[in-house]
Please model this.
Amino acid sequence: MTVVDHNTIELSPRISEAAPADYIALLKPRVMSLVIFTALVGLVIAPGHVHPVLAFTSILCIAVGAGASGALNMWYESDIDALMSRTANRPIPRGRVTRPEALTFGMTLAFFSVMTLGILVNWFAGGLLAFTIFFYVVVYTIGLKRWTAQNIVIGGAAGALPPVVAWVAATGSLSVEPLLLFLIIFFWTPPHFWALALFRNDDYARAGVPMLPVVAGPDATRLQILLYTIVLVAIATAPWPLGYFDAVYGVTSLVLGAGMLGFAINVYRHRVGSAALRATRKLFAFSILYLFGLFATLLLEVVVRALVPSIW
Model:
């Protein structure tokens, strides 16, 4: 018979149960894919020629920086993630990854992504990437999300910066075009996430997150969605008459903008029952298509111009 001394302190370290898939989940792959795509557009439309190795390095560093932000966000928000059905299956609430592991993982990725971009590309881009990570983790996640209903409005700046970082990586300077891309994503973010918050209202209320529907109510949120969508459509269309983007982009922005505005009006009109739920879900889904369509058009224009320069 083995006698167990219950006064003995177990000193052996905890063996992590995390699999590679758990660490991939910490990176927020869906968010990262949007970051990669918008950053790629910012890089491709930048003037001049970028060496393919430096271009790949830039996009990789921006992607890893986004993943670092996601991991650090999950590290800090693990308590509220456990309370929300949308996030309860994330690696930390499930007990697959510990908070210290997530913190170490995120900080390591953040350090190497910034340093690699700065050393191999340029320090303007590296510094801007560092600011983006800082803004998302410290300003948005820690400073704003639990304290103000304007969290997603101000915090949206972090998600709007990747194409600017990519442009700076390609050119070493700023210009109007990347700032226009920034403004499009910045004003797209509130209606996109407030639509999500409307049909996930109970989740945010249970977790104590002051999203706009929780604090101001669904009707006030619907009005804000409509107002921000009007501004978004105007800003997204403006680069065409201002001469920064071509007519193909302009027509696309008008068509997609009409759709976005139509879905926002539908959310504003339908306020109760299943019709209201369908309207918010449709706006949320279309908003992803809207942003993808705008940026894909810019990317396609550059590709076609390179392949068939005579038509431009």
Observations:
- The radius of gyration is 22 Å.
- DSSP finds 14 helices and no strands in the chain.
